[in-house]
Amino acid sequence: MGYIKVIITGFLVFPFVAVLFTMPYAVYQYNRHGAISKYRTLIIYSFVLYMLVAFFLVSLPLPPRASTVGNRWQDHLNLIPFKQIWLYWHDREFGIASFQAYLTSMSLWQLLLNILLTVPFGVYLRYYFKQSLKRTILYSFLLSLFYETSQLTALFGIYPGPYRLADVEDLICNTMGGAAGYYIASVFAAVLPSRDEIDERCRAYGTRVTGMRRLWASLFDYACFSVLYIFILGVIQILNPDFTGFFIYGEVFNWTSFCIVSLLQVLLTKGLTLGHAACRIILVSEDGGMASAKQLITRYAYLWIFTELPLIVAGWLMNNRFSIIVDFMILGLVLLSRVYYLIYFINVVLRKGKLMPHDKLSHTLYMVADLP
Question: In this structure, what are the phi and psi dihedrals at residue 322, rounded to the nearest 5 degrees?
């Protein structure tokens, strides 16, 4: 039951890890392969989930800190291979009854569970990461060494003293499990597409600029801008704690600044932002040639007009309210600015790259960038 609780804990924590992992993963896939494969995503995310659960199995449950004070690493280290097996049979006569008892003993099950722990690791290494048997054995040993080191060092110093046994037997069993997984991987290779097939499909699909590719490029740009924006705000607040200028119409100022920063990037690089470069796409003229400065300025001006100008007008009306009609006008303007984002999602993502008004009015579009 204890193992089941630990596995459930891993599944509960995984979504939070996945949220942190998703943007770097998406950007890397578009940069490397030009597309995101469903098979690859399933494999990678299942591998992350497996690694998380495996680490929890060797680390949880965590004890109270006070209970580990004074624990010495010497008392939590075993360098004798298969010591538990030897201790079990030391005072027993070998026979059918004793052997049957051994089959249900924790000594045997602990050994088998340590082998099973790294069997999936060996499967992943051979099937997806295309590692040889020697490398699979080496990496399985290193993974097990990491587990045992974390136990011996009390989770690398988080606890005052170790609370689990670091056992050379675990090293042997985990390494055996990885090697077993290497041979079992041939079963998966027979029914699932190979790594080369997945890559080939991505390369074929990556010749188009999909809506999701555009969306991830924009999200990456906004994430980079947000870090810069927060850093600048922090510096200004430190230098002048009474400064509140940036917080007036905060969302409008934030998005306006983002449009300006994006415009400066595409003007300086002739069509690229950081997000575009990361996802290997570029802004060009609708005829496929290089977009002019006028087209790029027009593009971001229309984007700003459709998304932020209604909010500015709504803010001005809020300071000049004189009837219920104005209240409805304010609500309508706010909804109008948000509707453009909804249209963006429908057109670009759900309708797979359909052009937006600011694309059409500026006569610009995205193409796959031939970047080094």
Answer: -140, 0
Are 137 and 179 a contacting pair, CB within 8 Å? yes
**How far does CA 226 lie from the centroid of its chain?**
18
3-state secondary structure of 79: coil
Q: Are 222 and 307 in contact (CB under 8 A)?
A: no
Asked if 162 contacts 76 with a C-beta cutoff of 8 angstroms, the reply is yes
For 184, the token pair is 């079992």
Angle at CA 149, nearest 5°, toward 147 and 151? 70
CA-CA distance, 31 to 371, in Å (whole number)? 9
**Could you report how far apart the first and last alpha carbons of the chain are, in Å?**
52
Q: In 21-76, where do the E strands start and end?
A: none
Q: At what angle do helices 133-152 and 38-59 cross, to 10 degrees?
A: 40
Task: Compute the distance between CA of residue 167 and CA of residue 178 in angstroms, rounded to an integer.
Answer: 17
User: Which residue do the tokens 């659960």 mark?
Assistant: 53
C-alpha angle 369/275/249, rounded to 5°? 140
Rounded Cα gap, residues 167 and 81, in angstroms: 8
Q: How far apart are CA 344 and CA 227, in angstroms?
A: 24
Q: Where are the alpha helices (DSSP H) in 118-249?
A: 119-127, 133-152, 154-157, 168-191, 195-205, 211-239
Radius of gyration, alpha carbons of the chain: 29
pLDDT digits (tens, 9 = 90+) for 352-370: 768 889 999 999 999 998 8
pTM: 0.83
Give, for 77, the enclosing helix (H) or strand (E): strand 77-78
Range 267-277 average pLDDT: 94
Instruction: State the amino acid at position 187 in one-letter form.
Output: V
